[in-house]
Amino acid sequence: MKCRVCRGPAVIDIRRHNSNFCVDHFLKLCRDQVAKAIKQFSMLEPGDRVLVAVSGGKDSLALWDLLVELGYRADGLYVGLGIDGYSDVSGEFVRRFVEERGQTLVEVDLRADEGFDVPTAAAVTRRVPCSACGLSKRHLFDRAAREGGYDAVATGHNLDDEAAVLFGNLLKWQTDYLGRQRPMLPARDGFPRKVKPLVRLTERETAAYCVLRGIDYQVEECPMAAGNKHLGFKETLNDLEVRSPGAKHDLYFGFLDRAVDRFTSAGDGSGDVELGACAECGAPTTGEVCAFCRLAARARDAEPVALGPPRRRR
Ligand code: SF4
Ligand code: ZN
């Protein structure tokens, strides 16, 4: 197996590019794909201050490293979710990365700073845990970006994530979600710009990137992910990709090229609704009190929920 670029020994094959790459040219490919996504979707300007939401997993740590390599001023934001046996370990991976690479980290701990955790919030809402978790993370990312004066929040969603979310939204024709499924959402009404610079890389590639760059990451899957439909959609798309290399890329980028604009008027969330300030925390909201403060009030009053040990990722 030879590198497509230099004909030296290759370490990875990428079937959707119909190519093999050596270490140096694979790392360059990752940087080039991120730079291309940033340019293609006008995600970042050279002097922007970026807040990278890091979980301790491969995608977010690879993203942080890639943005620094590309010359962006990128700090990390870690939110401790209070998921026993998982959150403490994920925090250690993030702190190790920060120490080894001399980066700046902003930390928020749900239990210590907000008085509740994700398992308890999930129990009081009686919805899938990821819904309470996602709501909390979005709120805390937005707040940290506002308070820290960052231009954008970057998240580590990769091509597999975005294709799976798109597939799920298409199965149910969630037209309002489809209209918002873009890798860059501009800042509006006190919310920071949101960017997903890894959309041109798969999770196999971000994992390989971490290994080759010596980035240690948390392999354990979040124990609350069970029941998350996206995992099933990912498996379905992986089967499809084996038969038809490039299928995920074509699904997702074909949608962005030719379809997303058709759904935007169905509710892209921009404009028509007046936002006021949350009476509790001041965050922009349509109601009197924002969804996060309502969730936090209920979760703080509830009996804390304990969890078993994490499952290993297959
Ligand atoms: Fe949160 Fe769900 Fe992700 Fe776990 S899997 S960290 S609960 S969004
Ligand atoms: Zn609030």
How many domains would you count in the coordinates?
1
CATH topology (fold) name = Rossmann fold
Name the CATH superfamily assignment.
HUPs
State the total count of DSSP E strands.
10
Number of helices: 13
Termini separation comes to 26 Å
Tell me the major beta sheet.
6 strands, mixed
Indicate the topology.
Layout: E1 12-14, E2 19-21, H1 23-40, E3 49-53, H2 58-69, E4 73-80, H3 87-101, E5 105-109, H4 110-114, H5 118-125, H6 129-148, E6 152-154, H7 159-171, H8 175-180, E7 184-185, E8 193-195, H9 203-213, H10 229-243, H11 247-258, H12 260-264, E9 276-277, E10 284-285, H13 291-301
Parallel strand pairs: 3-4, 3-6, 4-5, 6-8
Antiparallel strand pairs: 1-2, 7-8, 9-10
Helix pairs in contact: 1-9, 2-9, 5-6, 5-13, 7-10, 7-11
Structure described in brief:
This protein is an alpha/beta fold and 314 residues long. It contains 13 helices and ten strands.
Structure description:
With 314 residues, the protein is of the alpha/beta class. The chain has a single domain (12-308), classed as 3-Layer(aba) Sandwich (Rossmann fold), CATH 3.40.50. Helix content is 48%, strand content 11%. The chain has 13 helices and ten strands. The chain has a six-stranded mixed beta sheet with strand order 5-4-3-6-8-7, sandwiched between helices. The chain has a two-stranded antiparallel ribbon with strand order 1-2. It has a two-stranded antiparallel ribbon with strand order 9-10. It starts with 11 loop residues before the first strand and ends in a 13-residue tail after the last helix. It binds iron/sulfur cluster and zinc ion. Iron/sulfur cluster is lined by residues 81, 118, 129-130, 133-134, 222, 224-225, 228.
